[in-house]
UniProtKB/TrEMBL annotation:
InterPro entries, alphabetized: CitG
Reaction(s) catalysed by this chain's protein: 3'-dephospho-CoA + ATP = 2'-(5''-triphospho-alpha-D-ribosyl)-3'-dephospho-CoA + adenine
Cited Gene3D superfamilies: Triphosphoribosyl-dephospho-CoA protein
GN (gene name): mdcB
Region (Disordered): 135-156
Origin species: Streptomyces djakartensis
The protein, known as: triphosphoribosyl-dephospho-CoA synthase
EC number: 2.4.2.52
Keyword Transcription regulation carried by entry: no
Length: 274
């Protein structure tokens, strides 16, 4: 493979990841999450247009992560350190473009690197490689505790790091839900919403734990499960249950922000499928 071929493959992976993130952003109605209804940050305090713009700022960093993985050739401690350095630089760039997407950068960055390590691998192999990368500590990372790590320690939640170290089980769960919904004839946007709700049902969302506590997290999980048990978003009872959940989360300012990056990860793996 020539250098130009490698560059094109790295560009393709980065583009697929950004398009997956934008696809997640454009999905509506997402209960409690930014979507196209929030053109003026009415409900979620996140302007949808700004989030779409800043999502594009992830592209150079994701391409650099793919290149680093392809050059390294294995899920080593060295690769983990390089991905961490690229990630921190990319966070700064995204901040200048409007901010957001820290969770998406973590999820998509690991998955892009894993996909570059073994082109053509299926979702299970790609998430296994991402797990192997995440198993290494980032020794150059700032030593200050993040809000997510503090909440994880307090409540015993896996958090974003735990999700990666487990091989992104919720990404795989979302991808399976997406495939199942499609096989049942569910329209694509509704299949994606069902996949998001599948994640929300069981994810120990550290942002929700911080803002709503364990009781609030359980309430959101039960609400998401209720939509699916009503038949999913493609049915009238499911649509009604989704609307109720969305209204409630918006009124309480509860944002299940941990679920959205994992759906983006599933959409990325879906884009890589033949």
């Amino acid at each position: 493979m020539t250098g130009n071929d490698r560059d094109r493959e790295n560009e393709a992976l980065a583009q697929a990841a950004v398009e997956a993130l934008v696809g997640q952003l454009d999905l509506a109605p997402k209960p409690g999450l930014p979507d196209p209804r929030d053109l003026t940050a009415r409900a979620t305090r996140r302007d949808h247009s700004s989030l779409r713009w800043s999502a594009r700022a992830l592209y150079p960093g994701l391409m650099a992560m793919a290149a680093a993985a392809r050059r390294t050739g294995e899920p080593s401690a060295g690769l983990r350190a390089e991905l961490g350095a690229i990630g921190r630089s990319t966070e700064h760039t995204v901040g200048l473009a409007g901010g957001g997407h820290r969770g998406a950068l973590w999820t998509l960055g690991l998955l892009v690197a894993a996909a570059a390590l073994e082109p053509g691998a299926g979702p299970n192999r790609t998430t296994a490689l991402a797990k192997a990368i995440a198993a290494h500590p980032d020794r150059r990372a700032p030593r200050r505790a993040s809000r997510g790590s503090t909440v994880s320690a307090r409540y015993g939640a896996a958090g974003a790091r735990g999700e990666a170290k487990a091989g992104f089980p919720h990404v795989r769960r979302a991808l399976n839900a997406l495939t199942t919904a499609r096989s049942q004839g569910t329209p694509e946007p509704l299949a994606r919403l069902d996949a998001l709700l599948t994640v929300m049902c069981t994810l120990q969302d550290t942002h929700l734990l911080y803002t709503a506590g364990p009781r609030g997290l359980r309430h959101v999980q039960a609400g998401a499960r209720g939509v699916l048990e009503a038949g999913g978003t493609a049915t009238p009872p499911g649509t009604e249950a989704l609307s109720t959940l969305d209204t409630e989360l918006t009124s309480r300012a509860w944002t299940p922000s941990g679920s959205a990056p994992l759906l983006a990860g599933a959409l990325f793996l879906d884009r890589l499928s033949p």
